[in-house]
Amino acid sequence: NKKFIDFALRKFLFMSNPSSSKPNRKTSFGDRCLLMAKQQRTRLYILRRCVSMLLCWHDHSISD
């Protein structure tokens, strides 16, 4: 679980950096909007997974 969280956070930080995904060719405004929406959806998914893992881990550690 810790490895997944570390990987997810690194991926999240990499995706948050706008200079890391510069397109090689000109793209239309609509294509850029779709790409940004997809990236945002991915970021939210990763954050949701991390939070749910942390909550589950916290619930399990209390019962010990």
UniProtKB/TrEMBL annotation:
Q: Which GO terms describe its biological process?
A: negative regulation of cell population proliferation; shoot system development
Q: How does it sit in the membrane?
A: Single-pass membrane protein
Gene Ontology CC entries for this record: plasma membrane
Residue ranges crossing the lipid bilayer per the database entry: none
Pfam families named in the record: DVL
Which UniProt keywords are listed? Cell membrane, Developmental protein, Membrane, Transmembrane, Transmembrane helix
Q: Where in the cell is it found?
A: Cell membrane
Where's it mainly located?
membrane
From what superkingdom does this record's organism come?
A: Eukaryota
Entry similarity comment: Belongs to the DVL/RTFL small polypeptides family.
What is this protein identified as?
Answer: Small polypeptide DEVIL 10
Q: Lineage of the native species? A: Eukaryota, Viridiplantae, Streptophyta, Embryophyta, Tracheophyta
Q: Which gene encodes it?
A: LOC108831155
